[in-house]
Inverse folding.
């Protein structure tokens, strides 16, 4: 069924699409009128008008909503809990329409107590339900982090497999725009350091759908890090992605753009910035390979290392704080496994080592920008301009 | 209320004219037990540093009425009612603060007196001989197990232990009142509940020795037992985390429409944790069938309850969250049995949380890492151990029924002791868990990195066997 739809789409779209490989690295190549095949990048909203309208557009918000809806419909044990998820339709409207469809027993509006509802979610998971706990932002998960780490992550191990915790903790993570220090912290490194947890971070709508469905179906506790600024972004989705059985594997990264000169790793919103940086680098003759991590724990070390062995240079980019960050782990992994393949020191781009300031100009300086990624890639390629000029 | 302090002199003037306040101004003491609000402070430009609203502990008012009488005292204003979020509320022009404590503490429910005699006219759930004897023998078993295993730890045979001495009535009394389907989320001083449900002495010994026969595969430190089969969750060290989790379990049970409830235990110290408040509040809102049993044993390691909270124990906190509560004599096994059974019934049939505060005393040290004589007197410990022993008290009652004798007592104690010593010997000799168990159960399916590491570890052990202990299986 899915195959037919894909073929249908291919013929309607008017250009050839390679068969999407679900479990491996998904690639798409577009033959641009007569020229050599250009690796197709995930386009940002504004570029979409240039492509065929046969491909459906879906906002990340819609993608998450549909994933939740489908999983709740398929399994009566799945239920959603969090502040404002019901009547208010979700603080970011991710759970729109769900209260109406499934009723208050499966979409629970909670009192303001992260510790309370996270604990309740963990307890419900102990007994066999499949809760999806929403944090208004992961910054607030700090008030519940004991339940996530000491209970959810460790219970299966401590109980020797008797108590499993099939729970999903989801919500926006990292910086938004103009929300200050306590609303902009990225928790990827925090949760990814804990054995027993799985940590995912989607970028596109396809990621959002596939990974959330995988997370809900997974018997282990999953921390699902979304991004507020991505909620309103649209991405093209194929019929396969729209199918209710669609699911992405946990632990596999995606090569968003193939390249041969430098590897750029990123997750969540930064993938978009990295792709833009890759465009700019391409004009200067540097072919960058952009890896969308998708899964922070387990980290897809083999894809990353395979890429570095091909390009010999690495730039890790993340929004979170630099010390003990995701980039630090990737660097260590590459040095351990592919040291002799490196032709340049690893470049690490991260958020500034300060609590996020509020003023727009300061905030801009505290978060990685496209220019930072471009400069880092050039440094890795020994093509950098002197620091003084770049400042 | 704080806004009043910053109001201008003119406002204060205006307020003074109101009848009710004249009494305060003229220095008359209020007939009602509220705090005097020192109006003269209105005129001072700066805010006084100490709180104005309570007279301080030393001046503790003639705190008369309980909350109930307070609400019905303004009968003349009853017909005038205000509408606010939360419903209609009567109003009063008499400014009165609810006192921080009642004149009388909430009474404690008991059915047996200190000598184990049934108090005339008490509400109590009759138990059959079979149940009574089972309850008593389990209380004894618990006590013997605790003393033997405690001694074994002192001999250095395993790293840690904590006893339940003095709280056997709570453990067994509550366990007996529950059904096998009721899901237990304990703190850590409730092994009696597991014992009641059928966990054997050998299983307890295996857990503390962390050998390969342990159901927990040697993953946890001693006394952190659990059994999915017996509906008793593996003990987790952080205090009070089990409370909101119990609400979640209760919610699951409610969704499944099961004739069962969740039962969460905590100590007096645990009620200070944020989780306690979140759990109670949420349980009430969610209408979850959960029974919270608080063992108020007077001590949280060395923190006495007067340093833990300033309320009248824990029972009064139930009302703050809209939860039905009871205070029971935790050293009276029959009272505990009766109260918990009733609580369970209410929780399941009415789909509501219930709070049971059981007053008791922690006779033992907090754990083997504690020496409580450093912060309390030997006399105090001795007194509670002998004169207020829940076991002796229940024994008196059972014997009076003609259901127990001195001979059976001696036989039971020596039999249990023998079984325990045997169990310890066996447990000590049993092999430790295999190395594979280091890597399993982290996730549902072992991840590739751990599989790789396990393989590497095995290879290293094979290559350098001399560096590796011989008594641990690979």
């Amino acid at each position: 069924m899915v195959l037919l739809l894909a073929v249908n789409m291919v013929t309607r779209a008017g250009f050839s699409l390679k068969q999407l490989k679900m479990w491996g690295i998904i690639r798409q190549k577009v033959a641009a009128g007569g020229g050599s095949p250009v690796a197709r990048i995930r386009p940002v909203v504004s570029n979409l008008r240039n492509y065929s309208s046969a491909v459906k557009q879906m906002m990340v918000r819609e993608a998450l909503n549909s994933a939740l809806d489908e999983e709740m419909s398929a399994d009566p044990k799945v239920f959603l809990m969090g502040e404002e998820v019901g009547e208010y339709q979700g603080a970011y409207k991710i759970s729109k329409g769900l209260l109406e469809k499934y009723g208050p027993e499966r979409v629970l509006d909670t009192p303001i107590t992260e510790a309370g509802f996270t604990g309740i979610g963990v307890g419900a998971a102990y007994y066999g339900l499949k809760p999806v706990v929403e944090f208004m932002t992961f910054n607030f998960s700090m008030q519940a982090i004991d339940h996530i780490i000491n209970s959810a992550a460790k219970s299966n191990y401590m109980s020797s497999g008797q108590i499993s915790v099939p729970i999903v903790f989801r919500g926006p993570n990292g910086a938004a725009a103009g929300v200050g220090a306590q609303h902009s912290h990225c928790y990827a490194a925090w949760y990814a350091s804990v054995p027993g947890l799985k940590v995912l971070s989607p970028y596109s709508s396809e990621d959002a759908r596939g990974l959330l469905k995988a997370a809900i179906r997974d018997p282990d506790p999953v921390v699902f890090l979304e991004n507020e600024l991505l909620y309103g972004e649209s991405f093209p989705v194929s019929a396969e992605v729209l199918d209710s059985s669609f699911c992405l594997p946990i632990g596999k990264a995606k090569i968003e753009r193939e390249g041969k000169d430098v590897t750029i790793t990123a997750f969540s919103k930064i993938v978009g910035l990295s792709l833009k940086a890759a465009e700019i680098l391409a004009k200067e003759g540097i072919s960058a390979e952009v890896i969308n991590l998708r899964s922070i724990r387990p980290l897809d070390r083999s894809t990353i290392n395979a890429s570095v062995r091909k390009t010999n240079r690495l730039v890790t980019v993340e929004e979170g704080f630099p010390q003990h960050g995701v980039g630090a782990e990737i660097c260590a992994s590459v040095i351990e496994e592919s040291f002799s393949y490196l032709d340049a020191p690893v470049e690490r781009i991260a958020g500034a080592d300060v609590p996020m300031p509020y003023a727009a100009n300061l905030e801009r300086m505290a978060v990685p920008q496209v220019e930072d990624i471009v400069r880092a890639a050039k440094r890795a390629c020994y093509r950098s301009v002197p620091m003084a000029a770049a400042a | 209320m704080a806004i009043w302090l910053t109001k201008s002199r003119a406002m204060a003037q205006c307020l003074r004219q109101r009848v009710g306040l004249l009494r305060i101004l003229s220095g008359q003491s209020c007939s009602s037990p509220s705090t005097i609000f020192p109006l003269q402070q209105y005129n001072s430009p700066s805010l006084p540093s100490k709180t104005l609203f309570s007279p301080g502990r030393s001046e503790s008012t003639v705190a008369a009425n309980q909350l109930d009488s307070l609400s019905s005292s303004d009968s003349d204003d009853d017909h005038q009612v205000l509408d606010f979020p939360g419903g209609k509320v009567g109003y009063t022009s008499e400014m009165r603060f609810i006192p921080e404590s009642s004149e009388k503490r909430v009474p404690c429910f008991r059915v047996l007196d200190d000598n184990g005699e049934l108090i005339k006219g008490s509400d109590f759930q009759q138990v059959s001989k079979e149940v009574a004897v089972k309850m008593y023998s389990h209380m004894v078993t618990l006590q013997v197990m605790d003393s033997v295993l405690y001694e074994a730890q002192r001999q250095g045979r395993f790293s840690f232990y904590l006893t339940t001495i003095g709280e056997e009535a709570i453990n067994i009394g509550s366990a007996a009142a529950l059904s096998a389907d009721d899901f237990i989320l304990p703190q850590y001083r409730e092994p009696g509940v597991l014992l009641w449900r059928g966990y054997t002495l050998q299983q307890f010994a295996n857990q503390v020795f962390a050998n390969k026969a342990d159901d927990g595969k040697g993953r946890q430190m001693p006394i952190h037992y659990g059994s999915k089969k017996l509906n008793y969750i593996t003990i987790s060290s952080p205090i009070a985390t089990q409370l909101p989790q119990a609400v979640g379990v209760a919610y699951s049970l409610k969704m499944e429409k099961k004739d069962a409830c969740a039962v969460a235990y905590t100590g007096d110290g645990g009620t200070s944790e944020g989780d306690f408040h979140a759990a109670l509040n949420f349980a009430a809102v969610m209408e979850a069938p959960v029974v919270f049993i608080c063992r108020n044993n007077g001590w949280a390691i060395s923190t006495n309850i007067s340093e833990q909270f300033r309320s009248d124990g824990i029972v009064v906190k139930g009302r703050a969250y809209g939860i039905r509560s009871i205070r029971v004599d935790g050293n009276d096994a029959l009272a505990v049995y009766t109260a918990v059974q009733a609580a369970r019934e209410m929780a399941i049939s009415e789909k509501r949380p219930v709070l049971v505060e059981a007053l008791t005393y922690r006779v033992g040290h907090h754990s083997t890492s504690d020496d409580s004589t450093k912060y309390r007197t030997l006399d105090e410990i001795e007194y509670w151990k002998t004169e207020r022993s829940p076991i002796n008290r229940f024994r008196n009652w059972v014997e009076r029924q003609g259901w127990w004798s001195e001979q059976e007592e001696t036989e039971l104690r020596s039999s249990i002791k023998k079984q325990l010593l045997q169990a310890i010997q066996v447990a000590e000799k049993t092999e430790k868990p295999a190395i594979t168990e280091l890597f399993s159960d982290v996730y549902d399916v072992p991840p590739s990195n751990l599989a790789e590491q396990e393989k590497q570890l095995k290879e290293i052990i094979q290559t350098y066997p001399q560096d590796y202990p011989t008594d641990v299986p690979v």
Remarks:
- Chain B touches chain A through 50 residues (CB under 8 Å).
- The two ends of chain B are 68 Å apart (CA to CA).
- The domain at 129-429 of chain B is CATH 3.40.50.970 (Rossmann fold).
- Confidence is low (pLDDT under 50) at residues 1-8, 19-74 of chain B.
